[in-house]
Structures are given as structure tokens and as C-alpha cells.
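Collaborator request log, item 7. Partner lab (contact: R.S.) asked for a structural prediction of Arylsulfatase to inform their binding assays.
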Amino acid sequence: MKYIKNLLLTAICLTTSISFAQQQTKPNIVYILTDDMGFGDISSLNKESKINTPNLDKMISNGIYFTDAHSNSSVCTPTRYGILTGRYAFRSSLKKGVLHGYSPALIEKGRPTVASFLRDNGYTTACIGKWHLGLGWAKNDQTKPVGNSGTGEKIDLDFNDNVNYEKVLEDGPLNHGFDYSYIIPASLDMSPYLYLRNNKAVIPATAYTPGKSESEGRGSMRRAGKMSPGFDFQQVLPEFINDAITYINKQSTSNKPFFLYLPLPSPHTPWVPTEEFKKSKAGVYGNYVEETDYMIGKVLEALKKNNLDGNTLVIVTSDNGSDWKPADIEKTNHHANYIFKGRKADIYDAGHRIPFIARWPTKIKPGSVSNEIMCTTDLFATVADIINKPLPINAAEDSEHMLPAFTGQQKSPIREAIVHHSLGGIFAIRKGDWKLSTELGSGGFTEPRKLEAKPGEAPMTLYNMASDIEEKNNLYFEKPEIVKELSTLLNKYITEGHSRKTN
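Returned to partner:
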């Protein structure tokens, strides 16, 4: 009997050991999303950059960067929706604009996310940082909306936002696949200003801030509203990085791989770098970018100290282009969006062409560069390939399998096309060298935002991005066959509800 017991114990231990080894073959995944960082902010991608980014530069030399990567939208909320769901946000209830701090949850109940997919396949999942995807706030009065008008744009001075901060959120990151979350509700310029850990306020928002305007300094704007007593805007970025490091330290002793979604609040306005960062030649914005680079370096160092860096895929990208104005360029001679036309929110390439860097020592060759056209929605299908699991049914409708581009195994273009979307809801479609925008004007922040074609003028724009990357020469009339092809394809993607061409 004793022999049989020992035999059974040995079998159990062997099974456990095999299970652990299998789990360890799955890489950890750390997805760092900067907020409003431009392609030209990174010093190794822009030789004329006035900002020093040594940690991102090192990541590029040790990994891969994409020259033609795009966010699925030119602004915050819809891009975040696309990253986590693998689906264009224009298919959701949000047809233009962004959410606010009091907005309801955008991700539909029951919709698979990257986090829920990975959790279902053996991963521990965490979201630390800026959420900005809407929340299900608990109400004091069920008959009234939260926020002053239900939009969160204005708050009564008597603090009556109708939120019960003592209760757990009815909808938050934990409802969409995350085991752990530590977040702020939206951008650092949108109330309420507070931290939420695991769908519960750390300190209730019982205080009030009158906010700031741009008249107090470029990049200082933040809206008036509720806040937790003692909430320190300068410490939000360091707070999230410290929490991320704590999470990584904890996972180093786990027998499960982890997915860490780390959406940073920087360098979005308000620009609030801590006192140690004052040396940039691009002003306060540059200081904030340099602090962001430093903080990313701390995360990479934590992975190294815990011997996790070898089997961890780290991705650093941005939710859209930089909100760098022509006046900022004139003042600093820094081109945050490199040579691309426009700025954040625009349908022009500066609105959605983003830095995209990945490091994975066991799979990605150091110093690699990819010219593959790719989109932030591609994360979902790519991680499915990484863990060798099929995508869930009715999920990741606009996500393509980019793993061959990461590893250098790609033999032909992966994506058929990308749909771009601006703040104001203007569409564009990019296929190969060609980009067709369906309306005139930026559709975002750059003036003119909207234009009506005069008699005889082209009603749309068609650019050859290979020969005209700055979008100067409209070939709408010269290439009617391309206009027809792209218009038809865009309409197909919109009406059919999906664009993914691979299984």
C-alpha cells in the first residue's frame, strides 16, 4: 500500500511538473500604452528629436519597430476599445469623440477581450493605469444619471455628481477579463480624479478642484470637478509604475504566465512631470516624455531583476499621435509627429501613425525593422497565435495575425487594409501604398476641420503614401479606379461587420 501511495504521489508531482513546464512556455505579455506620444518623440526614430529617450532607444536596438503602425482611431477611447476587443470602435455605440470620466462602459457585456481570452487560457491578467473606457458607477439616486448632465463635462460646485463612491463599480476592468486593476477613470484632465483598485475607490472623491486652463501655461489644462482629498497629479505616473513593478515582483513567484496592460497617463495633458525632469529641449512636454521613457525603463528593469525578461513580450506604443500644435513646433523646433501631416484627432497620418516597438529576446531578432502595415486592433489575433489557440467565435473582427511580422517570418503582406477614423467620425482606408479619405478637412483638431468641395473640386482625397508620405498631392481625379476599389472595400468592411481576412 505504501508503495502504491508513493507511486501515486510521484505521478501527481510529475503531472504538476509537466503542467508547470507547459505554462512556462507561454510568454508573459506586457503591453505599455503611452498617451499622445508621437512617432517623432523617440530619439532613435527621429534624428532631429529634441527629446532623449534612452530606454525606448535601447528597446528598439534589442527588438523591432514598425515604420507603418497605426492606432485604429486618432483619439483615446476608441483606440483602447480596439486594442482590447480587436474590433474597430466605430462598430460600438461610440461613433465619434471620446468618453468622459462619468461615461458608462463602452465594452459590451460578454464581449471577449484580450484579457478574458488570455485568462481563459491560463494567464493572470492585470490593468494598471488610465482606463478611459467608461465605468458602471454606483448611483445614489437610481433615477438620475451620474455627472452633472450625464456627460461628465461639468460638475456642480456642491459636488452633486450622484456617485456612491463607497460601493463597488457595477462595470469596470474586472468585468472585462482582468483579475486585478488599479486605474484612474479617464484622462488626467477629466474628473473625477481618484484611484480605483479592483473596481472600488481607494479614497472617495469628496474634494473639489477648480481645474486649470491653457492660459496658465501650455499643457496645463484640466477640467474642474470632484477629486480624492490629496490627489497629486504629478504622482500619478510614478504611482502606476510602482504598482506595476509590485505586480511584476509578485508574478515572479507564480507558476502562471501574466498579461499586464499598462496604459500610462502620459504625455497627455496636463503635462505634469516630477521635479527631476527639467532638461528637455522640447519644454514641459518634452520633460514629460522623458519621464515616461524613464518609467518604462523601470518596468523593463523589474522584469530583468526577476529573471522574466527572456520570456516576456514587451510592447510599447501610443493610442494616437501627439497633440503637438504648429505653435509648439515653431517655439521648440521639435516635430513630435515627425514628418507626418496634422496632429492628434486628425484623419491625416499624424493623427493615427504611431510608434510601435516590441522586444521578445527568444523570438524577435535584435535591431529588426518591419514595414508591414499594422493596426492596434491586431493585438488580439497576434496573442492567439503566440499561445497557439483559436480566436473566440464572434470576436476580434478586425484583428490580424501579426506574429510573422514580429519574428521576421512574413513572406507577403498580412493586412489587406486598415480603416482609419478621426475624432469627428471621418473615415479613411489604407491599402498598400494608397490612402483614401472620404471627406475633406482634418476631421479633428487641425483647421479646417471640415470642408465642402467646390464645383469641379475633388470631394475626397487619395494619396500615394509611398511617394507622398506628407499627403500633399491629391490624386483623386488621376486614379478613379483606385478610388472605386477603396470606396467599395471600405463600404464592405463597414457593412459586413468585420475585416479580418485570416482565420
